[in-house]
Automatic annotation (TrEMBL):
Protein family according to the UniProt entry: Belongs to the YciI family.
PANTHER family assigned: PROTEIN YCII (PTHR33606:SF3)
Protein's name according to its UniProt entry: YCII-related domain-containing protein
Domain YCII-related: 1-88
SUPFAM superfamilies, sorted: Dimeric alpha+beta barrel
Entries under InterPro entries matching the protein: Dimeric_a/b-barrel, Sec-metab_biosynth-assoc, YCII
Pfam families the UniProt entry points to: YCII
Length: 183
């Protein structure tokens, strides 16, 4: 089962986040084979972290909760909240398979928070700019709750346009970059 996990940073937690960086990476190293995508969301300056995205394949919702809540930054209070949902990998690949590579261009996390009937279940035709794409689902996988996308786009408006605007209660767009331990 695939899960989307978005830890949102607490204001003024950057110093603590930096202090725990090695602990965070060591924790994530334990999940390296299950990782579909990972990386920080960033403020408008492109440097200041605002959150941490992980899309991971785990056995069940209980394992996903352990993953999300045993994470060192969460345990230390870096994060203010966590969005944890089942997710379906509509592209069938990891971020490392993205044809556009790790760098170049602007990258975004686009979160469409559902309202009513499921939307955007089919992958858009221009999939070359999609890094990760799939629906957010209830723990049992039966109810659509939204859509989560990692995309390369020229600007936030073009990133937002990946989703059908009137089908969501809210659409968030966050600067995002490929994450993980530096090579």
């Amino acid at each position: 089962m695939e899960f989307f996990c978005y830890h949102r940073d607490r204001p003024s937690s950057v110093a603590l986040r930096d202090e725990l960086l090695e602990e965070h990476w060591s924790y994530m190293d334990r999940y390296s084979r299950q990782m579909i995508a990972r990386g920080p969301t960033l403020a408008g300056d492109g440097d200041t972290p605002t959150g941490s995205v992980h899309i991971v394949d785990l056995p069940d919702p209980a394992a996903a909760r352990v993953f999300a809540f045993d994470e060192p930054n969460y345990q230390a209070g870096v994060y203010r909240d966590v969005l944890l949902r089942r997710w379906r990998n509509a592209l069938g690949r990891t971020m490392w398979d993205f044809p556009g590579g790790r760098t170049g261009g602007n990258r975004y996390l686009v979160l469409g928070l559902g309202a009513g009937q499921a939307a955007d279940l089919a992958v858009p035709p221009d999939r070359d700019e999609l890094i990760a794409y799939g629906p957010l689902l209830s723990d049992d996988g039966a109810t659509w709750l939204g859509t989560a996308v990692l995309v390369r786009a020229p600007d936030p408006d073009k990133a937002r346009a990946v989703l059908t605007p009137d089908r969501y209660a809210d659409i968030e767009v966050h600067n995002w970059q490929f994450g993980g331990r530096p090579s």
